[in-house]
Amino acid sequence: MTTCNKPLCKQPTAKEVAIFLVDYSTWLLGCGATCIRIEKNVQRMAEAFDMEYDMVIMPSNVQISVRNHDYTDSFSLVGRKHKTGISFNINTRLSKLSWDIADHKIGFEEALTRFEEITHTPPTNKWLVLLLASLANMSFCRLFTGDGVAMLVVFIATMVGYRLKQVLLEYKVDVRFVFFCSAFSSSIIAAGAYLFNWGSTPDIAIGTSVLYLIPGIPYINSVSDMLDGHYICAFSRFIDALILTAALSTGLCGGMMLMDLKLL
Q: Are the CB atoms for 210 and 188 separated by under 8 Å?
């Protein structure tokens, strides 16, 4: 691999670095990274490129100003967040890329190539994700003392609801409506255990049938951003998570009302 210490590795301009860092930051923001992670990753890369920078992270965009040490070359740019959905894979690989740059294992040109490869990573097989999500939610049912019948019902309810979520998101349907529809369908299926008296814990089946929709990562990220002083991003992420929680709760209540369930 080439390194920035070699003659073939040219020093990038402030404009080139700014474009790269903005694109990098907006991808990290879109795939679920916290603000402090974005800041640390950008800082180590800017130092490796021998540049100074200022950055402002907002809920929907990132602004970066890059300059050399004597202020003879500078460039500012604003980029909009990439709506890629939460991806631990891309998040981790982008963080590794920043360390490779900081350790001078790769030069600027190779960093651009690596970044292009990472951002074009195909998503995980949707059928595998569907199966794993259903198994995970079934495990939650068991964790809350659900019996075997309740676990089976939750598995089926999760498969139906999660598959509906995948299909609606592919058609670019509003995510809040997607959460409502998924919770509504899962709760109706889970209500069958209660209506037909399947197993000894049908109430657990209904309660855990929508847990796969809980926006845990936005809640965690909002706390992280708040502790790091990014109050606007923290508030935005918390409100987004709260709205999604309200949407799934409305779907759950709607399904119970449709099935005329009166749980105490």
A: no
- Answer for the pair 154, 146: CB distance below 8 angstroms, yes or no: yes
Confidence check: pLDDT of 261 > 90: no
pLDDT of 218-242, one tens digit each?
Answer: 999 999 999 999 999 999 999 999 9
> What distance in Å separates the CA atoms of residue 31 and residue 231, rounded to the nearest whole number?
19
Q: Residue 182: left if φ>0, alpha if ψ -120 to 50, beta else—which one?
A: alpha
pLDDT tens readout for residues 62-118: 999 999 999 999 999 999 999 888 889 999 999 999 999 999 999 999 999 999 999
The continuous run of DSSP H or E covering 80 comes out as strand 74-80
48-73: per-residue pLDDT in tens? 999 999 999 999 999 999 999 999 99
Exposure b/e, 209-224, CB count within 10 A at least 16 = b? bbbbbebeebbebbeb
Token pair for residue 247?
A: 């949407």
Separation between Cα atoms, residue 179 and residue 164, nearest integer Å: 10
Q: Which two tokens stand for residue 181?
A: 């529809």
Two tokens, residue 253: 């209540």
Which residue in 253, 241, 171, 235 sits closest to 213, CA to CA? 241
Phi, psi of 60 (to 5 degrees): -120, -5
230 Cβ partners below 8 Å, 6+ apart?
A: 35, 36, 57
Helical spans, DSSP H, in the chain: 14-30, 35-48, 88-102, 108-119, 126-143, 148-170, 175-195, 202-208, 216-227, 231-258
